[in-house]
Amino acid sequence: MAGLPASPSHSDEQRYETTTLVRRLVAEQGVLYWRRYALAFLLMGTAATMTALSTYVLGDVINASYVQKDFQKILWLSLAIIVMFIVKGASTYGQQVILSRIGNAIIAANQRAVVAKLMRESIGFFANRHSSEFLSRMSAGAASVSQILNLLITSVGRDLLSLLGLVAVMIYQDPMMSLFGALVAPPAVLMLRKLIRRIRSIATTQFHNSTRIIETLQESLQGIRTVKAFSLETIMQARIDGNIAAVEQSSNKMARVSHRSSPMMESLGGIAIGMTLIYGGWRVLDTGATPGQFFSFIAAFLLAYEPAKRLARLNLELNGAVVGARMLFEIIDSPASEPDDSGKPALQLKDARVELRDVEFCYRPGETVIDRMSFTAQPGLVTALVGPSGGGKSTILALLLRLYDIQRGAILIDGQDIAAVSRASLRRQTAYVGQDVYLFRGTIRENIAFGKSDASDDEIFAAARAACAHDFIMAFPKGYDTPVGEHGAQLSGGQRQRVAIARALIKNAPIILLDEATASLDSESERHVQEAIDHLCHGRTTIVVAHRLHTIMHADAIHVVEGGRIVESGRHDDLLRLNGRYASFFRQQHRGDTLLSPLSEPA
Ligand SMILES: Nc1ncnc2c1ncn2[C@@H]1O[C@H](COP(=O)(O)OP(=O)(O)O)[C@@H](O)[C@H]1O
Ligand SMILES: [Mg+2]
User: Fold this and answer.
1) Pairing of strands 408-413, 354-362
2) How far apart are CA 603 and CA 588, in angstroms?
3) Fewer CB within a 10 Å sphere, N or C end of the chain?
4) Measured in angstroms, how far is the CA atom of residue 404 from the centroid of ligand 1?
5) Residue 256 three-state SS
6) First-residue to last-residue Cα distance in the chain
7) Proximal ligand: closest to the CA of 387
8) Kind plus residue range of the DSSP H or E element containing 481
């Protein structure tokens, strides 16, 4: 998978260091919720106090039973312990709910930020990335951010406070004995530090591999027809299996490494407890210390063990979670490839004259795709671009929509350079229908209304009629409320195309761009769609890319595009008389059409 920045620079490395990233998270996102965090913190403090208090009281209970033999006191103290645990339970509940809610808010906010960022990216940004990459970055990344912040607050609030309370009890009961507990800290810290680096690299591999699974799965499902038609099931299965195996492997590695601390920590804890017991027992037997003191200490010590262990592992956990946060920030931080330009003046249309002036463009440096091209699409007329595949026709339409910026020359609409006006105003005035029609999940009605957000039903029906779509839509049991799924799978190619034309019609844009809109259709559907297109283009400046020449025979101007240049221009008859490239294409197709389907022979 292509990581977002082509090669992470040194400054990127620094920027995404664990400590920098965690600090940034706290400063940018954590502080927004400080009130709720404070409340959660308070509740955690309460719970910690209750824990410490209960171990302290335990000492009194033991003394009441063994030394004072006072049953009344035992009853009261036990009752107090019950109350303490109830309070602890209630505070823990409150704190957990608060933290989960903050977590959810953080996840939602980050997901919104990613979506907002993606909407400001250009087509080029997405061209060499798999859409699933963003899915996993968004879901895993946002979850990591909330995980990190909650990890921090629980570590400080729950674990650190509990530890402090318990240590206070230990020191109060027996300062000397507390020293034994402290002995194990240095070796534990040393050991954990070594594990951290490993964890981070494994977490990164794991993330990339999981993304791969989603990518391949999504591809297989979207292309399920091709998969089945070519019997690619086993190949696709094998690909995904490979990714799954890789994730399983790195997860296992992660498990081995991250839990490597456990046996060591448990042994160290055992040693500390053993030594404490020996010393404590000796104190009771030899120096006459009360058993309550001893018990209270042991209880506090045992309870302190868990929070101490979690605190020691904090850095480990943070380093794992930081990988996700980094994936998220890489998207959010990279400069938008289509930055907000709403400050630029809007395109002002008069006649909708479109002019290319010495336009030069390449997708990749050094590979010129459009080579000093100039032509004018006259207002209200149809300008056709024809020529061999790969010549640059679709690219010209993309440039007119400013999906890419040109390197040299200018594209003018009514004398205004499209680079100097806001993209939104340019695209508002332009309706585009391509070969692959994209219908969004929803009803046919909604899909047409995407062309004009406040369209009334009458407008929608009128557009559908003009697009020759009304009749087939009404033939569905649910009519305009027929749902169309992912890619509009329920409709045939010609039907989808007509829904898309209705969507373009309702937009009522003065400039129409058509890219081989009928190329993939059979001649019956093509006839319907062609009629729809004629309605759409009527009286509007139209630039049409056509593969089948008979669809553009009546165009007002025809340009033959080859290798990024216009090699011939004129009207159909002129070009035939010229007997050049166009004439040879035409003869080729004419012959082909006659052979394949005599019915569609151009009149
Ligand atoms: N997104 C892209 N990235 C890089 N190269 C591209 C891209 N789209 C098209 N090209 C290249 O640009 C050239 C022109 O493509 P295109 O405009 O689609 O031709 P046409 O529509 O005339 O068939 C082709 O050589 C193609 O490989
Ligand atoms: Mg094309």
Assistant:
1) antiparallel
2) 16
3) C
4) 12
5) helix
6) 52
7) 1
8) none
**d(C-alpha 213, C-alpha 153), whole Å:** 33
Are 213 and 247 a contacting pair, CB within 8 Å? yes
Nearest ligand, CA of residue 560? 1
| Residues with C-beta atoms within 5 A of ion ligand 2 | 394
User: How many other CB atoms are found less than 10 A from the CB of residue 335?
Assistant: 7
- Whose C-alpha lies nearest to ligand 1, atom 16? 392
Which are the contacts of 509, defined by CB distance < 8 A and separation ≥ 6? Answer: 428, 429, 430, 431, 540
**Spacing, Cα 577 to ligand 2 middle (Å):** 27
> Which residues of 363-429 form beta strands (DSSP E)?
368-377, 382-386, 408-413, 416-417
- Closest ligand to the CA of 389: 1
* pTM across the whole model: 0.76
Q: How far apart are CA 219 and CA 228, in angstroms?
A: 13
Query: Amino acid letter at 210?
Result: S
pLDDT digits (tens, 9 = 90+) for 128-181: 777 778 888 888 888 898 889 888 888 888 899 899 999 899 888 888 778 877
* Model pLDDT for residues 247-259, shown as the tens digit of each residue: 888 889 888 887 7
Domains and CATH numbers, the chain: 10-333 (1.20.1560.10), 352-429+510-598 (3.40.50.300), 435-508 (3.40.50.300)
DSSP secondary structure code for residue 550 in this structure: G
Name every residue whose Cβ is closer than 8 Å to that of residue 603 and which is 6 or more positions away in sequence.
Answer: none
Q: What angle, 0 to 180 degrees and rounded to 10, lies between the N-to-C axes of helices 34-63 and 161-173?
A: 30
pLDDT digits (tens, 9 = 90+) for 265-303: 788 878 888 888 888 888 888 888 888 888 888 888 888
Q: Residue written as tokens 């607050």? A: 153
Q: How far apart are CA 374 and CA 71, in angstroms?
A: 103
The Cα 591–Cα 251 span in angstroms is 62
> What atom of ligand 1 comes closest to residue 398's alpha carbon?
17
Relative to beta strand 442-443, strand 483-484 is antiparallel
CA distance 205 to 86: 44
- CA of 437 from ligand 1 middle (Å) equals 18
Cβ neighbours of residue 188 closer than 8 Å, sequence gap 6 or more: 264, 265, 268, 312
